[in-house]
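Input/output pair, single chain:
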Amino acid sequence: MILPYIYPNITALAAGGGSYALPDVLSMPVIEERNGAFELEMKYLYAGENAAEIQTERILMQVPQKDADFEPFRIYEVGTPIDGVITVKARSLAYDLAGVYLTPFRKVGITNVINELNTQISAQTPYFELQTDIVNTTSQLSTSFPHNAWSMIGGTHSLLSVFGGELSYHWDAAQSKMIVKLHAQRGDDSNATIAYGVNLLTLDSRVNAENVYSAVYPFAKKEINDQTQLVTLPEETIATGSLTGQTRVLVRDFSAEFTELPTEAELRAACNAYIAAHEWDPQQSVAFEFVPLENTTEYSGQEEYDIDLCDTVHVSAELIGVAATAKIVRTVYDPLREKYDSMTVGTVEQTIADTIVEIDKRTDTDPGIPVEYVPAEEIEIETDTATTVSLPNNAWTKLAELTLDPGTYAVVGHTQFNSANTGIRRIIISATSGGTTQITRGAISSGNAATGSINSDETCMVFLKIDTQTTLYLNAYQNSGNALTCYPRLSALRVK
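Output:
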């Protein structure tokens, strides 16, 4: 039996002192999913030893899987005692990254992305570090809006979605840091077989073909000299390697992955990296319960039956037509009995992107304040970026444009102007290309400075509801006396 203990806060955890034992625990299953939820639920005697120390925001320590170290879980819910028992819910300390903000950035290559995230995270908290063993120098991750660090690790457009891989979370006591690592492959290839009539107790098999595509049609576009330049491939599509025989093409825009208009070779490389990072055949999900053979006398010491999350296993149940080789994607571990309650192989529908939404339907510290959450899959971001635009003197000029379908949007325009000694800088979001009729207007940098220069960044933003397809323009004006180079970006976040 592995008993939990509790720290009052992360400072005490980092110092390694001030913990309290919790010996009167009744149950404590730990659930971990591949790139998804990592949580536990504890039932504890209300009159038990140190029960008064069980409070929200405190940190439970428990072993999440077989032969693992203790890991920290932050309590987010303590239930009302029923029949002398309290129910406690906690999630991995890694979820604290949902409270760390990231400012907009654009980086190419996973090493540069990791370094950028670590720099921004460490400026706010010393207790987290991102790591990876993935090698990728070409793919790009960027954002035009502030995000929390948790969503940038595993959200809809994130470290995980761009570079692929499998996440793990581990408290490094020597460094007093929570290590969040993106592995190229977290688990091992196992020879273990889960078989009907041997160790398979119950089984539920399902096949999902939602993401089956035979090929990807990649393209990228940029606005250059008021003209939209488009890059596609002469072969048009790249095969995904799907074995279904079904012809279904995914059309994907890779524009956000490049700072400049890519060459055909660069676009092809980005598409190949995207294909390699995703699954393209129907995904079989098999939920099962099994006898842990590694704990039996007959199979004791046989390493092939010692399996964990992200390991590959073989599932065989010929009577119902199930014969699969797949990863373990969900485990429920009972540290009190030091055994797994259940495992799931195949795919689970909930991902870390879903847990970003789930996190904090449950963490409002003031239950009297209602909060509305937008599911990650409902968020769409469109961006038009030009590397440089020459902005003439005393003339309103279009810098960027977006065509939006009906919906509700937050639209943000941003421009950085090169230095000039005098003059006014102004940007607006307009329904007219190069026009002065504004939907909203950014701040004005007033000029006529005798010395120095104006190297300003201007931002303007508007929330609007669009009933029919509409094109919006980012227009700018300056009167420094000379043409100025500027670096514009117009982005729209669809919120409904």
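Residues 353-379, 440-453 have pLDDT under 50 and may be disordered. The longest helix spans residues 110-122.
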